[in-house]
From TrEMBL:
One Pfam short name: PDZ_6
Domain called PDZ: residue spans: 312-368
Protein name: PDZ domain-containing protein
InterPro entries: PDZ, PDZ_6, PDZ_sf, Peptidase_aspartic_dom_sf
Record organism: Thermonema lapsum
């Protein structure tokens, strides 16, 4: 069992490479092939790559291509658990996306399919821990009483499973296949470009719906009357729809996929992945019945390196009360209500501000000028 931390909706675990004593922070990301190191300066920790292969890396929905080189035969440990004695690792040639700023902590890489290849892995969002099982011993299955088991479709080392949605004005549930993406912060992402029967809800707002290697990407956010995963149904579910004018849809070869689920939905269940036998088990946790909520403040924050103590506004939704009160991207937070910014973590900042009806007072700095921003957090969608 390995404890993990949730930073900015990311599952972050301690990783040790090639018996080095330095602890690296990696995000567990089922939407990534293999292992991707985001910090080029860490190259020396990995096995010499000599004339190793350089490979292209693309961010979701981006036409841009970035490059990484492959380092082979790396000894990889997550916490105290040996995951692989000869792991291939992709090391980015350049720093292209500062995931650390969105997490509020240094994030050195993404741990994808390599984590799940040799072991059965349980993700417990409620207790914040990973549990590893040896698939040769069946005793772990006794712990899965009441769990739903489903077929796990693996394509390009990424996991997919069935999902059913009800669109506005429809009675029947529509079957889809979606990517299970533990590295994404959204609840449900639907690709209108992948299926002509998908359409925007009658009411939606436009804004930032995620981030990729190449930066932020935008689209519409609305609600679906019902969504069913396995045998459990949820109502009034948030769904994002990428803006195809700024988003390049690349259809996966050999598989029909209409979308992806991320932290907003995955965190409501216990998950057990058995990649080798193409099985996934899931069971609702205590968060399953909570309503799906969009940001009440409309503010996205980042934390600036290298000390990760300075909070900066990265986005303010133009329909939000914060925007109307004068808050703008680039503003530096000095205090919120009774808290000094120096007392806060990113998780704490969101926790004390994202509450409908709460009166918010922000002290910010803009171009060496101090400003008080006062507003009431209200529902946007």
């Amino acid at each position: 069992m390995v404890p993990f931390n949730l930073y900015g909706n990311l599952i972050v675990v301690p990783v040790f490479v090639n018996r080095a004593k330095d602890t690296l922070n990696f995000a567990v990301d089922t939407g990534v092939n293999g292992i991707l190191v985001l910090t080029p300066s860490l190259d020396t920790l990995f096995s010499p790559h000599g004339n190793s292969t350089r490979i292209p890396v693309r961010g979701l929905g981006s036409p841009e291509v970035f490059w990484a080189h492959v380092s082979s035969l790396n000894h990889l440990r997550v916490g105290s658990k040996l995951i692989n004695e000869a792991a291939n690792v992709m090391v980015m040639d350049d720093s292209v996306f500062n995931l650390s700023s969105y997490a509020g902590k240094p994030i050195h890489g993404l741990l994808g399919s390599a984590l799940f290849e040799h072991l059965v892995v349980k993700i417990d969002y409620q207790r914040q821990r990973l549990t590893f099982y040896n698939r040769q011993y069946r005793r772990w299955r006794r712990q899965l009483k009441g769990y739903h088991v489903d077929t796990l479709f693996l394509h390009g080392e990424k996991p997919y499973m069935p999902l059913w949605i009800q669109q506005a004005g429809e009675r029947k549930l529509q079957p889809l296949r979606v990517l299970l993406d533990s590295g994404a912060g959204h609840t449900l992402l639907l690709e209108i470009a992948a299926d002509s029967s998908l359409r925007l809800p009658p009411q939606y707002i436009e804004g930032r719906i995620g981030a990729t290697l190449s930066g932020d990407w935008y689209g519409a956010v609305g609600r679906l009357p019902r969504v069913q995963i396995a045998r459990w149904q949820m109502e009034n579910v948030l769904a994002g729809f990428p803006d195809t004018t700024h988003y390049v849809y690349r259809k996966p070869k050999g598989i029909e996929v209409q979308g992806a689920i991320g932290f907003g939905m995955m965190s409501r269940f216990h998950w057990v992945f058995d990649y080798r036998n193409r099985r996934v088990w899931l069971y609702p946790n205590k968060n399953a019945k909570k309503p799906f909520e969009y940001s009440f403040t409309g503010i996205d924050w980042v934390v600036l390196p290298p000390d990760f103590r300075t909070f900066m506004v990265s986005e303010v939704h133009p329909l939000s009360e914060a925007w109307k009160a004068g808050l703008r991207p680039g503003d530096i937070l000095l205090g919120v209500n009774e808290f000094s910014a120096s007392e806060l973590t990113l998780n704490h900042l969101y926790k004390i501000t994202e509450e409908e009806g709460k009166e918010i007072v922000l002290l910010v700095r803009r171009n060496n000028n101090l400003m008080l921003i006062c507003f009431t957090a209200k529902r946007l969608i």
